[in-house]
UniProtKB/TrEMBL annotation:
This protein's record includes keyword Electron transport: yes
Tagged with keyword Cell cycle: no
Record keywords: 4Fe-4S, Electron transport, Iron, Iron-sulfur, Metal-binding, Transport
Domain 4Fe-4S ferredoxin-type positions: 1-30
Natural source organism: Mesorhizobium amorphae CCNWGS0123
Listed Pfam families: Fer4_7
InterPro entries named in the record: 4Fe4S_Fe-S-bd (IPR017896), 4Fe4S_Fe_S_CS (IPR017900)
Protein name listed in UniProt: 4Fe-4S ferredoxin, nitrogenase-associated
Cofactor(s) required for function per UniProt: [4Fe-4S] cluster
Any one GO molecular-function label of the UniProt entry: 4 iron, 4 sulfur cluster binding
Amino acid sequence: MAFKILASQCTQCGACEFECPSGAIKFKGEAYVIDPKECTECKEAFDTQQCASVCPVPKTCVPA
């Protein structure tokens, strides 16, 4: 399972893109998206998902 970014809540701040250890987050069109093939849910590197931990809007980075 991967995480996803709820575009309707995303402020496009970019914090998640730089914190993602797997490089799964990219800006496409008008929103940030997480490539589910690249998302590791930070399981190998961290105890929590980095996208969700740095996002200024609660519950924007959520399990897909």
